[in-house]
Amino acid sequence: MRNGIVVCIGEGRYKNIGDYVQSVAAAQFSGQAPALVERERLSDYSGEPVKLVMNGWFMFHPEKFPPAAQIVPLFVSFHVRPKAEAAFFTPATTAYLKAHEPIGCRSRDMVEMLARHGICGEFSSCLTLTLGATFRHRSDAGRPVFVDPWFVRPSRKKGWWR
After folding, report:
1. 3-class SS of residue 62
2. Strand, coil or helix: what is 137?
3. Is the distance from CB of 68 to CB of 45 less than 8 angstroms?
């Protein structure tokens, strides 16, 4: 069975480099050529069976959860955005998560959210904290630079908040 990682292409102007960094963190542990599974279409996945690290921030489209049957999940660093809680925790989603307990959670708040729905969660922290094992900064390499390719350049005409 192939290993996989969750990716998020983004929608329209909703793109986040944090989603990419979450995928990079999972990729460290997935081996060669992992299957890439779109986070916002997990229920639509129709590829070969895949063991999928379920880390990151879930989701703009909670109706696309639970994942397709071909996905064997490993829940670590899992997080549901608080505004999506009511829409996310349907009877089907709750049953799915209960079947895969304990759920590794990115924060203690997420453990509490799961508990409100009768699901056992454990604090696993954020998978991005493992990036130092693979990616290291050399102190002699000069100043670090952060580049966010999804940033829309603001203008006086549009304002900084758009």
Report:
1. helix
2. coil
3. yes
Contact 103, 79 (CB under 8 A): no
For 28-73, the pLDDT digits (tens) are 888 888 999 998 899 999 999 999 999 988 888 889 999 999 999 9
Distance CA 146, CA 134 (A): 18
- Single pTM value for the model: 0.80
Residue 144: partners with Cβ closer than 8 Å, 6 or more residues away: 137
**Distance from C-alpha of 145 to C-alpha of 134, rounded to nearest angstrom:** 18
- DSSP H/E element including 112: helix 108-116
What local confidence, expressed as pLDDT, does residue 162 receive?
39
What region does 91 belong to: left with phi over 0, alpha with psi -120 to 50, or beta?
A: alpha
- Pick from 25, 30, 79: which is nearest to 56 by CA? 79
